[in-house]
Every structure is written in structure tokens, then in C-alpha cells.
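Sequence in, structure out. Go.
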Amino acid sequence: MNRVNLHWHRVLRPFQEFFQLEASSGILLLTCTFIALLWANSPLAKFYFDLWSTHITLGIGAFAISKDLLHWINDGLMVIFFFVVGLEIKREIRVGELASRQQAAPPIAAALGGMITPALIYLLINSGTSAARGWGIPMATDLAFAIGALSLLGNRVPTALKVFLTALAIVDDLGAVLVIALFYTEAIAWEMLALASVIFIVLMIANRLDVQKTLAYVILGVGLWLALLNSGIHATIAGILLALTVPFGASREGARDQAKTLLERLEHTLHPWVAFLILPVFALANAGVALGGEVFFALTQPIALGVFLGLVVGKQIGVTTFTWLCVKLGLGILPAGANWKHIYGVGWLAGIGFTMSLFIASLAFGAGPQLSFAKLGILSASLIDGMVGWFLLRRMKF
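Output:
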């Protein structure tokens, strides 16, 4: 296999499959979001909110876990989402857009700008109040929605720009995970955290020994999730930690040309489940907010305003500015066939927060009016960012 074909096999073909899957998932997510909003504002609204409050208990006696359906989705199903995110991050670092400095620097810089600037805007509006806890909400970029919007442009958009947005969103996801782990953690149960650490060390040893048995990682992963669930650190972090220990390489370098690695097999198997089941269910459970007759009043509240301006203003400024600084300092180059107008358009699409923003909002505020204000800010900003970003890129020539 020559060098060009090898590059296509390892990087471009998996990316094309990934991009097409995310684009389709974005359409389904949009549908579930509309259903959730309609349901939460219909005569069946009480059934909507009661459904997600239904308590479900798994286990027996002291080994039982009891949570409402919403938390089973957010603390349980979303672990698989974070696991796939972790696999994507690891693959990008090993052979993808984050594999070299010239490739990695621009999307990393764009992601940093797209996280820092929105958070600062939010804090400027909400500093000194209890609402300041939500500063992490506008930092996020929803990969499925952003790629879905970009995919509507078809071949008008070069592959390099699609890869740039994908890498930006993946780095953004990693940043969001770190924010959740460091700033949205409850009181820590050190015994459980110690147990989680021991399990993680065993997983690292399995990685070093190149253990290729999926069952081993499933069993240890469940143990890691249970330990973190009871440690005070959000249980979804288990997904990222588990992904980092999954072997990417094969026993021989040449073997990777012939068969997919364990990491690639797991990503290929789980990604459709995440894209077409887990994320749509998450959207259905989390996007519903009772708008009532005071929706415009709610949008003027500091939380909603901070989230809205962070995603609409902060994202496009942060992404464009930090990318410009990166290129001007000689740390990286623009995607092939793209110019600064295209980067600015991508900056708007990066403002589509949704999945991770809703997730962080639920951690920051729990149930109540503050969460509703945050959801309104997220949904309205994501809609505007998607429409403006698509319109700007559609008018540009590539």
C-alpha cells in the first residue's frame, strides 16, 4: 500500500464516514429538539416532565442504584457518548488532524478562543451572582449540529474546512470534559476516588500489555463508572478515561494496514448507537422547556443573556481571533482552500452549543428557573448561529 493510499485508509476514509454519520445525526437531533419543545408546551406537558422524573431502581439492597429517568440518561447513557468522544480524540491525536503541530495548532487555537471568550462574556454579565456558576455553558460546540449545518452545503465546502471544524469541536469537547471534571464536581468521596484510581491503573496496564479483549474493558469500565458515580466526580468522566486506555496500535505496525484496531472497531460499532439513539434520547429529555407567555422576558434574564451572547458573539470572535493569532505567529496554517472569511463562517457554526451546553447547564443549575433560562439561551443562540453560519458559508466561493 503506497503512502497516499495509506493516508486515505488511516485518516480520510474514517473521517468521511464519521462526517456523514454526524451530519445525519444532526438532522435527527434537530427533530427530537422540536418534538421536546412541542411536547413541553402542549396539553401533554405534565406527562413530559413526569416521564423524566420517573424513578428507576437497578440492583438489590445495598447494591441498588435509584435515579430518575433523566439522571439515568445524563449519568448513564451519556457515559457511552463520552466514551466515543474519547475514542475520537485519541484517534485524531494519533493519526488525524491533531497528529502534528502544523495540523493541530489552528483548530486547538480556535477551540481555546471559542471557550475562553464566551466564558468571559458570560461572567461579565453574571459575575457576583449565583448564576456565575454557569460560565462553562457557552464554551461548548455541538459536533453533530455543526457538521449537520456544514453538510447542507455539500461539495461547496472543501474537505479541509470540514476537518478543521471537526477537530475544533473535538478539542472543544475535551475542554468541556476538563471543565466538568474540575469545576462541576460535588463533594469528593475519597475512598471511591481511590478505587476508581486503582481500576484506571489496571486499565493502563491492560493497555500496555496490548490486551485486545473487548470484554475486559467493558467489565473494568463498568467498575470505573460505578466508582466515579459514588465518588462525587461526574460519572461521565469514566467514558473519557476508559477511552484513553483502549489500545490503538496493533502488535505489528503493518497489521494496522490490514485490520481495524480495537479502538477503531469500538468506535465503528458504538458511533451509530450514540448518533441515532443516545443523543436523540438526550435531546428529547433535556431540550424541553416550558416557554409560556414570558419567553421574551426570560431571554432578557442575565443567565439567558450571558449564554446567548457567549455563543453568538463570543464564539465567532474567539474562534476567528485565536486562529488568526496562531497563523500569524507561524504555529500553523489555514486549511487548504480556505481563507479568513471561511474561518469566520465556521466560527458561527462553532456557536451551536446544544448537547454539551445542555449537559453543563444541568450540572450547573439542576432543575428550576435558572436551568430554563439557560436552555432558552442555548436553543435560541444555537438556532441563530446555525442559520448565520450556513448563510455566510453558502455565499462564499471555495
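Check: The domain at 3-185+234-395 is CATH 1.20.1530.10 (Na+/H+ antiporter like fold). Residues 251-258 have pLDDT under 50 and may be disordered.
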